[in-house]
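User: Hey, quick favor. My workstation is busy. Could you predict this chain's structure for me?
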Amino acid sequence: MRKLKNSELDRLSVDDFKEAEKKPIIIILDNIRSLNNIGSVFRTSDAFLIEKIYLCGITATPPHKDIHKTALGSTDTVDWEYVENTLELVEKLKTTGVKVCSIEQAENAVMLNDFNVEPETKYALVFGNEVKGVAQNVVSASDFVIEIPQFGTKHSLNISVSCGVVVWDVFSKLKKPI
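Assistant: No problem, here it is.
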């Protein structure tokens, strides 16, 4: 086996990415402190043709050198918007038919592997603060709470890792025929 060169990967140009059909997935970052985590979420969002990222509360916005360091240019491809109040955004999205899913450990949470993706449905995935998680009022307003199964001694994953795991799972389920 031989590793492929970047020129062999057949990736989209920035213009082609902007014109490409996006997956019906929105990411909401609820008060994320780490600029590197924010950049990593942008990069994951680029990889899986995410429709949009909402940066809420204390979540920093591009341009910023520490976001850029991990985003590697994906802040130029992925559509994003800053919204101060996460709960107001969630309520607004729900009125347009978007199903809001907080990624959190909570009562009656659905395990990610058991979460069924409905065809023709747009999902907003909410990822929370590195210490406090998704705000309780946002969890309460969500249509679903999705938990990533974990089997070790730790109680959580890094937010950028959680985003990669959940986005890949939802993306994969969207691609499967019913």
